[in-house]
Amino acid sequence: MLLIHDLDQDDEKKITPFLQPDTKIFSKKTNNIRGCLGCFKCWTKTPGKCIIKDSYTEMPKYILRSGTFVIITRIKYGCYTSYIKNVIDRSIGILLPFFRYVNGEMHHIPRYNNESIKLVVIGYSEDITDNERQTFKDLVKGNSINLCIPNYETHIIKNISEVKSILENL
To answer: How far apart are CA 64 and CA 17, in angstroms?
Structure first.
């Protein structure tokens, strides 16, 4: 399992007992991440690997080997936090720079077979509108299509204490 989250250390400690023992965890608090340069060298120069040297250089490899890719993020205006969005941007090497149509939309072709990966996105917010809720669900669906990961789940919770049951059922 691979877990990417934007939780503070206290909330991370609350969910750690419910993670699989071999879970690889990335968080803004413990791993340095630099922003995507948009250079596309992960497509052309170093296929599947980012040229930026930090903890996220091989994010596509971590996703592919995870089996289950879990994202926990605060919902802001129906979207991920900037940290989570940055991780997703840095994962583009999982794709090829070529396009195909999926459901009438143009999307990248997968570099690898991503169909065995399960994407689980857990968004949390104590106060969320119906529009923000729908925007978040649409965003996760769009990212699953973009990353060529057809097996995905979206969960929206009010607080982190609700994460336990989701993690236990993975």
So the answer is: 24
For residue 168, give every residue at least 6 positions away whose Cβ sits within 8 Å of its Cβ, in sequence order, or none.
18
Q: Write the DSSP symbol of residue 22.
A: T
Q: What's the N-to-C CA distance of the chain in angstroms?
A: 10
Strand partners, 73: 123
CA 22 distance to own-chain centroid = 18
Q: Are 117 and 155 in contact, with CB atoms under 8 Å apart?
A: no
The model's pTM: 0.94
Lookup: tokens for 149 = 């990961």
For 96-110, the pLDDT digits (tens) are 999 999 889 998 999
- Bridge partners of 68, per DSSP, are 118
**Alpha helix (H) residue ranges in 16-102:** 41-44, 59-66, 82-89
Dig out the tokens for 53 from the structure: 């040297």
Q: Summarize pLDDT for 102-136 with one digit per residue, the tens.
A: 889 998 999 988 889 999 999 999 999 999 999 99
Q: Quote the DSSP letter at residue 36.
A: -
d(CA 72, CA 147) in angstroms, rounded, equals 17
Query: In Å, what is the CA distance from 168 to each residue of 18, 19, 50?
Result: 6, 8, 32
